[in-house]
Amino acid sequence: MSKITVSFAAALAATMLACCTYKTGREINTAAINDVVIGQSNKEQVETWFGPPSNIFMMATGETWMYTSTKIDIRGSNFIPYANLFNNETDHTSAQLNVSFDRKGIVTDCSYHR
Q1: CATH assignment of the domain containing 41
Q2: pLDDT at position 55, please?
Q3: Is residue 5 domain-resident?
Q4: Is residue 52 part of a domain?
Q5: Residue 73, domain member (yes or no)
Q6: Smallest Cα–Cα separation from 23: which of 91, 88, 76, 69?
Q7: Phi, psi (degrees; rounded to nearest 5) at 16
Q8: Which residues lie below 8 Å from residue 106, measured CB to CB, with a gap of 6+?
Q9: Which residues have C-beta within 8 Å of that of residue 3, sequence separation ≥ 6?
Q10: Number of structural domains found in the chain
């Protein structure tokens, strides 16, 4: 076999075994969720535990901070035409934490979804 054929075969094998990862947001500190106490915790504490929020929604009664995190792992073989018609190997993980505050900055609600 020529060097070009061997190089192409090696590159193809590496591509099929490779995995691409796409991430958005920062990972949510799930251990700190239990530290959030409704009626007691405040904005400063929440920001210390989770960092700045992904989004802030203003309402008449206060505001809600939303933290989002998404991770998608894609197999390299997904990019090879016809090689992966019946088995698209993708692993998708997402999480969302919503923390609502009253006008004084005290937590009124906290919910986490994975």
Answers
A1: 3.30.1450
A2: 96
A3: no
A4: yes
A5: yes
A6: 69
A7: -65, -30
A8: 39, 40, 41, 42
A9: none
A10: 1
76-107 pLDDT per residue, tens = 655 555 555 556 666 778 999 999 999 999 99
pLDDT at 14: 54
Distance of alpha carbon 31 from alpha carbon 11, whole angstroms: 42
Q: pLDDT tens-digit profile of 6-29?
A: 666 555 555 555 567 767 788 899
The parent domain of residue 76 ranges over 19-113
The average pLDDT across 35-56 equals 97
Amino acid letter, 107: V
Closest CA to 45 of 31, 35, 58: 35
The radius of gyration computed from the CA coordinates of the chain, to the nearest angstrom, equals 22
Amino acid at site 78: N
